[in-house]
Amino acid sequence: DEQTTPSTHLGLTLAPANEQNGGQGVVITAVDPNGPAAEQGIKAGDVIVNVDGKSVSKPGDVREQLGQLQKAGKHAVLMRVESGQQTRFVALPLANG
Question: Could you give the angle at the alpha carbon of 32 between the alpha carbons of 78 and 71, nearest 5°?
Answer without folding.
Answer: 40
